């Protein structure tokens, strides 16, 4: 009969004490003297460790010598009320078995502060740190909240294709997917590469968005969402860009722009509230990490709110809804614009907003999340619905403090003739998108959708500053390790 | 004030009648005469239609003319108890608005039987059919059940990388991901392609499995699972292979082979039970579809059980656990082997089982799902744990009736020295997998995991015969449409 281990998350919540327990995990630290040893043990089920108390009289020196940071052990012992402060229960070890050693001379994760840059280089081990295990658990919690939210609303999760033969989305540079010989590709008579010899008999790329295929689903079963990887082959080495990232893209038949905004706002609040309700321990750790990180910053660079205050603020306050046109007026008349403090002065109507403008609106003017709507058609995609003024489209972007754009969406153009003339205007060949146009030819309906960059959300809920630290194995220019 | 639409799934469950309702959807059929029209309306929220009763005296002929199969309409009316059979409620239309027409001369989905081959060519429209909307809804239900199961068990969903620089997994042919010029790639002095000029500064491919990265997570936080797209560039044109498919791969620290089997069996039963509990209407439709399809087959080719009987059978019966060695004995002494009915006769110990052998074990001998364990090491991957006999590894494959292998897994080799000598034996360079070996150098623990091909599961729960019909946009050799 096997002894079942109890997870540390359960032990720490146990209402029973003086019971035999079996616990396994990785040693975070060991301290003590010749009379007693205290081992902080973690198994990843929670950010909190359980304290193992080992008496050198009953546990051999040979074993205790191997109990070093990073080693894995199995402990049989008694769960008892803790005498010390900081924890409610501890385990008095009867036996300790060494499962795997971790040579202190070589193991890279010694109990000291490591820079995030260093930890990125050992991304295969960094989930064993407090910060990155907290991020991993919260990534799970946020992912589950996404599915739970949409499931409760009757949406269908749809797996849109990752490899796509369609290149009309225009959302950015793409990665080519191929099995052709890299050095000597087959050529056509005119000297160009003969993709008819490639695996899919045409040129294929990694998707930049599942939206267009998502619309096909919504126009059949009403409401769908995607949650999958998307790709941009852009040479951006910033703290906010990845070459491979995860997106959530709901598409809804019969939703107009207002319904779309209502859903997006409800969704974001739900996710943030879910984090508050389900990730209290990890959030508390990340909050104190952030306070620690900002300790030495000048007062004007420190966050005005703590991490949980910021999350609560978003969960509890209505987002400000303002048209692009009104936002331009606000920006034009703003102090930084008049004092020429913006790098890009705001003058005319029609140009895109820069991140400094978005930050001003969110962080200084409204001091809350902002939904910007009805952008000029020329700075938005072909599929966004034309407004009656003929100048703007029914787009909406949600801007978050510290993040900028977290959601981008629109009502989609459901009118075949207008959609086709927009495509012509923007140089998109109709033939290639015939399948998309079919949805407007047959039983077209008003519909809407938006996209949420999952890693942007993760930056917001964890308070981390670099997008490379909220995904397990970041892909950026020159980096595809592990 | 906007009138909110009510979904048809809710209308059909409504306990109130004689209330004003607003319903939108796509016309499936219209029949009737000059006194009354019956419109079967579907909005994708359920496989069932609601009947709209339209009186030509109150709805203009001009409108009714446009109410054709595939057209989208908005109806205001009264929900009343139905006089006819087959439905409990219907809507008596007061107004009908045409949202989008569907020219009966051109719309491809007329109310008649279409072949699955034809529907694959119009995969952008096929979710508007009963069968494919049922599959889409069930794909959602099964996906959600996956997340719910693991969330309840304290597993963490982990996004392992899609683009990988690691090519040691050896699970199959890979797709190259590149931004190099396809025709004139940069070359090194020795004439080979200079991948240091590629986006990631090395050769990169699409992942064939997230397992190895998943292990990194499990060896930090205990229990993780992946659920993401995986890729095989294999030229297989069969009813069971896709170039792009979704896999679920849990990895668990502190699990041995038996724990692994227990989890996999519990998981599969949970998924099947979830389908029975949550997809009754879609299952009923798919079951009758299957009966209809098999109507003209000879008796010995017909399914012995209906679709729901088959699901109930799996949910309620223990899987048979048998070692490879015992299975070989059973097969060697089996009637088809003695009568030379197998295409591949079973003789010695050590060769891999063919699908005909798996089917015999599952469908004829045990007549239930089978877990085959402890395969010869030479036919399994390097990371599977060596058994004490030095001949077999702690692998386990789960075989399902009609599907064959649905799950493949193993206890992982946690002993550094044995793992390294297995890698040497199999020609896998240690340097390339140094990050993987680190997990065995530092705090190694016994651990296990398995992979479930999501589309194989979908074939099982829907009763469809071709894997191309259980994913929205199948990718196969020569096919990457939409």
From TrEMBL, chains A, B:
<comment type="subunit">
    <text>Homodimer.</text>
</comment>
<dbReference type="InterPro" id="IPR002312">
    <property type="entry name" value="Asp/Asn-tRNA-synth_IIb"/>
</dbReference>
<keyword id="KW-0547">Nucleotide-binding</keyword>
<dbReference type="Pfam" id="PF01336">
    <property type="entry name" value="tRNA_anti-codon"/>
</dbReference>
<dbReference type="GO" id="GO:0005737">
    <property type="term" value="C:cytoplasm"/>
</dbReference>
<dbReference type="GO" id="GO:0003676">
    <property type="term" value="F:nucleic acid binding"/>
</dbReference>
<dbReference type="InterPro" id="IPR045864">
    <property type="entry name" value="aa-tRNA-synth_II/BPL/LPL"/>
</dbReference>
<dbReference type="InterPro" id="IPR004364">
    <property type="entry name" value="Aa-tRNA-synt_II"/>
</dbReference>
<dbReference type="GO" id="GO:0004816">
    <property type="term" value="F:asparagine-tRNA ligase activity"/>
</dbReference>
<dbReference type="InterPro" id="IPR006195">
    <property type="entry name" value="aa-tRNA-synth_II"/>
</dbReference>
<keyword id="KW-0067">ATP-binding</keyword>
<dbReference type="GO" id="GO:0005524">
    <property type="term" value="F:ATP binding"/>
</dbReference>
<dbReference type="Pfam" id="PF00152">
    <property type="entry name" value="tRNA-synt_2"/>
</dbReference>
<dbReference type="InterPro" id="IPR004365">
    <property type="entry name" value="NA-bd_OB_tRNA"/>
</dbReference>
<keyword id="KW-0030">Aminoacyl-tRNA synthetase</keyword>
<protein>
    <recommendedName>
        <fullName>Asparagine--tRNA ligase</fullName>
        <ecNumber>6.1.1.22</ecNumber>
    </recommendedName>
</protein>
<dbReference type="InterPro" id="IPR004522">
    <property type="entry name" value="Asn-tRNA-ligase"/>
</dbReference>
<feature type="domain" description="Aminoacyl-transfer RNA synthetases class-II family profile">
    <location>
        <begin position="136"/>
        <end position="472"/>
    </location>
</feature>
<keyword id="KW-0436">Ligase</keyword>
<dbReference type="GO" id="GO:0006421">
    <property type="term" value="P:asparaginyl-tRNA aminoacylation"/>
</dbReference>
<comment type="similarity">
    <text>Belongs to the class-II aminoacyl-tRNA synthetase family.</text>
</comment>
<dbReference type="InterPro" id="IPR012340">
    <property type="entry name" value="NA-bd_OB-fold"/>
</dbReference>
<keyword id="KW-0963">Cytoplasm</keyword>
<keyword id="KW-0648">Protein biosynthesis</keyword>
């Amino acid at each position: 009969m096997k002894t079942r281990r109890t997870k540390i998350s359960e032990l720490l919540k146990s209402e029973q004490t003086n019971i035999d327990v079996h616990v396994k995990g990785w040693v975070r630290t060991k301290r003590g003297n010749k009379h007693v040893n205290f081992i902080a043990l973690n198994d990843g089920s929670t950010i909190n460790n359980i304290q193992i108390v080992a008496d050198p009289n009953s546990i051999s020196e040979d074993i205790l010598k191997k109990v070093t940071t990073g080693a894995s052990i199995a402990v049989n012992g008694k769960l008892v009320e803790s005498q010390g402060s900081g924890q409610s229960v501890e385990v008095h070890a009867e036996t300790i078995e060494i499962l795997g050693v971790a040579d202190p001379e070589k193991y890279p994760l010694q109990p000291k502060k490591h820079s995030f840059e260093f930890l990125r280089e050992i991304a295969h081990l960094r989930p064993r740190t407090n910060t990155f295990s907290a991020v991993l658990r919260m990534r799970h919690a946020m992912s589950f909240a996404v599915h739970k939210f949409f499931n409760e609303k009757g949406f269908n999760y749809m797996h849109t294709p990752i490899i796509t033969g369609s290149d009309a989305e225009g959302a950015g540079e793409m990665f080519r997917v191929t099995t052709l010989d890299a050095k000597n590709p087959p050529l056509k008579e005119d000297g160009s590469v003969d993709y008819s010899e490639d695996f899919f008999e045409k040129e294929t790329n990694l998707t930049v968005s599942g939206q267009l295929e998502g619309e096909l689903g919504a126009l059949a079963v009403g409401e769908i969402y995607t949650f999958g990887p998307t790709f941009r082959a852009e040479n951006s080495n910033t703290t906010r860009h990845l070459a491979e990232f995860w997106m959530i893209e709901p598409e809804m038949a019969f939703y107009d722009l207002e319904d779309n905004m209502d859903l997006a706002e409800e969704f974001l609040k739900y996710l943030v509230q879910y984090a508050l309700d389900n990730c209290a321990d990890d959030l508390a750790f990340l909050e104190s990490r952030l306070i620690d990180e900002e300790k030495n910053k000048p007062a004007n660079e420190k966050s005005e709110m703590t991490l949980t205050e910021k999350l609560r603020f978003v969960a509890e306050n209505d987002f400000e809804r303002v048209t692009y046109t009104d936002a331009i007026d606000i920006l034009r008349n703003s102090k930084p614009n008049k004092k020429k403090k913006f790098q890009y002065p705001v003058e005319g109507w029609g140009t895109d907003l820069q991140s400094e403008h978005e930050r001003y609106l969110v962080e200084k003017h409204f001091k809350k999340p902002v939904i910007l709507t009805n952008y000029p058609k020329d700075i938005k995609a072909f599929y966004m619905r034309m407004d009656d003024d003929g100048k703007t489209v029914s787009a909406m972007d949600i801007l978050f403090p510290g993040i900028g754009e977290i959601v981008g969406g629109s009502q989609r153009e459901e009118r075949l003739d207008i959609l086709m003339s927009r495509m012509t205007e923007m140089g998109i060949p109709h033939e290639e998108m015939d399948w998309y146009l079919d949805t407007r030819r047959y039983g077209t309906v008003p519909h809407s959708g938006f996209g949420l960059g999952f890693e942007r959300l993760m930056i917001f809920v964890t308070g981390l500053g670099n997008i490379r630290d909220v995904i397990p194995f970041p892909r950026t220019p020159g980096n595809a390790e592990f």
